[in-house]
Specification:
The protein is of the alpha/beta class. It has a single domain, classed as Ribokinase (UDP-N-acetylmuramoyl-L-alanine:D-glutamate ligase), CATH 3.40.1190. Helix content is 49%, strand content 15%. It has twelve helices and eleven strands. Strands 2-1-3-4-5-9-10-11 form an eight-stranded mixed sheet, sandwiched between helices. A three-stranded antiparallel sheet has the order 6-7-8. A hairpin with a 6-residue loop joins strand 7 and strand 8. The longest helix is centred in the C-terminal third of the chain and has 22 residues. The protein is globular, with a radius of gyration of 18 Å.
Amino acid sequence: MDISSNAQDVRRRQWEAGLPVSAEMTPTLPDVAAVLQRVRTQRPLVHCITNVVTTGRVADALAALGALPVMASAPEEAAEMVEHAQALVLNLGTPAADRWAAARAAGVRARQRGIPIVVDPVGCGATRWRTNEARALVEAILPDVIRGNVPEVAALAGLPPPNGVALRGVTAEHIRPRDGRASSAGGTTADVPDAAARLAWEAAGVLESTVVVTGRTSIVCDGRQVAHHRATVPLLARIVGGGDVLSALIAACRAVDGGNLPASWTGLVLFSEAARVAATRAGGPGTFWCGLMDALSGLTAEALRESHGRVPPPPRTRQE
C-alpha cells in the first residue's frame, strides 16, 4: 500500500461512483449484548502501546469492561508480548523513536499472527514528522481498524478534511468562518455527517482498513458499508482520553468478534452508553471520569435494551 498514490485515485473512484454498499452485516442490539458477554466470558488480553498521558485510564477502562489490559511499550518486549495477546492497540500519541520502533515490531508480529490491530493516529497532521511516521507504520502493518477524529483521519489518508475543521495540537476544532474562532469539533465535525461519511468512505479505500471517524455523529466504514452512531455527551469534550479509551474498547470487541465494522460499531455503542450514564450522575469532569469506569463495569444487556431508543439505525447505503 502506498498512501500518497492511493489517495487521489480512491477519492475519484469510490464516492463519486456511488458504489453499492452491502447492509447484510447490520449490527443489532442483541449483537452488541452478545459481544459484551463474550468480552466478559473470554476476557481477551489487549496489548496496548498507548500514549503516556492516558495509559492508566485506558487500562482501567479495559478492565472495567471485562477485558485484560497489558501496556508493554518497550521495543525489547513489544513483539514478544503480542504472542500472548488477542488484540493490539497502537495509539500514536506522545511519539518518540523508541515508541515507533515498539509499535512497528508489535504490529508486524500481530499481522503475522493474524490478531486484530487497531491504530489510533493521535495528532496525525499536527507535524510533518508525526504524519510521515504514522503513514509509514500503517503501510507496514495494514491495521484492521483505524479510529481518529476528522483531521487525523484525513491527514493519515492524505485527503483534505471537510471545510472548517482543523487540528489544534491533538484536538479537532471547528473554525467559524465569520470570526475565525475555534470550538471543539467534538460537537461540530460530524454535525455534517455526509462530509464525515464521505471522508470515512474515501479513507477506508486509501488505507485499506475499516475507518472510524468520531464526533457527535461517528462514522464507521469498511469500504462496502457505512454505519453511523450519534451520541451527545458534552462532558467528553472536558476530559482527556475518551478517544483513547474508545479505540481500546473497539479492540476488545474485535478480539471476540470476527467483523471489523460490527466490532467497531459495538465499541461505539458501549462507550457512548457508558458515557451517557456517567454524565447523568457526574458533577463535573472528575466525577464523570470515575463514573465512566463504573458505567463500563455496570453495562448489561438489560440496560442496553432499556436505552434502545438511543441506539441509532443500521448502516445505510450510498444510494440512500
